[in-house]
Amino acid sequence: MGAFPGITTNLGDYVADLVKFLDESLEGFFNFIYLFSSQIINAIEGFLLWMPWWVFILLIVILGWYFKSMVSGILYGVFVFLIGTFGLWEDLMTTIAIVMTAVIISLAVGIPLGVWMAFSKGFSTVMRPILDAMQTMPSFVYLIPAIFFFGLGNISAIFATLIYAVPPVIRLTELAIRSVDREVIESAQSFGSSNWQMLFKIQLPQALPTIMAGVNQTTMMALAMVVIASMVGAQGLGEQVLVSINQIDIALGFEAGISIVFLAIIIDRITGGVADKLQKHRRVS
To answer: Which has the closest alpha carbon to 253: 242, 265, 261, 263?
Structure first.
């Protein structure tokens, strides 16, 4: 009596057909994304590995000092030094390269979309349920089309991370643009400012602190995908966590895990410090 009637829908099959169609019809586009992403991540990783370890640590200390405090900067430097003592320096650089690449692409895509949503109620209405789905869909699901389009490796990790991490910066960019003081906009209009002039000279500068909060959230969500992305061949600290799980290696698992925690603290505090500085500057001006 309680059994579900024999009614079936093959919605998943339609989605699979759509993915196959996109892969065949947009092969050149996906190849371009692959090459473009590869160049960015290789350039960032190559530069980080070329930089002397002590210069990188000093840079972290200076950033922490400037955006938070001297004690914070020294503490962040100690965190990075500890990761190096774990023998995970190259994995750290690879992880930073993956996160930075994903964040750069997320911002390049997310900020324009957020601006568009702020100026178009129709586009915003269409995008909001899509963003809801992107944020609530289990992150493991994103690995499937990533493998299908790009195969195993860091590029698949970046693609999956992009889908998961881009919604916050889109939402907060829209919110920031919509929250700009209406009197300021009307004043600019009275002086004959064009829409582009108002956007780049008034709205974006006014909205920058909130946009930076979106950058912070996007960066943290990208870092949260590090371990999950290792399942599609992404290298770095997430790969070491996966290896430790497969080998039941408690020591490696702790060192790789705490390294990700250290990196998350550093990124969160520094990007949050940037947002705070911009907010204070805005209040003063």
So the answer is: 242
pLDDT tens string, the chain, 285 residues long: the values are 567 677 777 777 777 788 788 777 877 887 888 888 888 888 988 999 899 999 999 999 999 998 888 999 999 999 999 999 999 999 999 999 988 888 888 888 888 998 888 888 888 898 898 888 888 887 777 777 778 777 778 888 888 888 888 888 898 888 888 887 777 777 777 777 777 777 777 777 778 878 888 888 888 888 888 778 888 777 888 888 888 888 888 899 999 999 999 999 998 888 888 777 766 665 555
Confidence (pTM): 0.85
Q: What is the CA radius of gyration of the chain?
A: 22
Show the 3-state SS of the chain: CCCCCCCCCCHHHHHHHHHHHHHHHCHHHHHHHHHHHHHHHHHHHHHHHHCCHHHHHHHHHHHHHHHCCHHHHHHHHHHHHHHHHCCCHHHHHHHHHHHHHHHHHHHHHHHHHHHHHHHCHHHHHHHHHHHHHHHHCCHHHHHHHHHHHHCCCHHHHHHHHHHHHHHHHHHHHHHHHHCCCHHHHHHHHHCCCCHHHHHHHHHHHHHHHHHHHHHHHHHHHHHHCHHHHHHHCCCCHHHHHHHHHHHCCHHHHHHHHHHHHHHHHHHHHHHHHHHHHHHHHHHHC
The residue assigned the tokens 């002397």 is 52
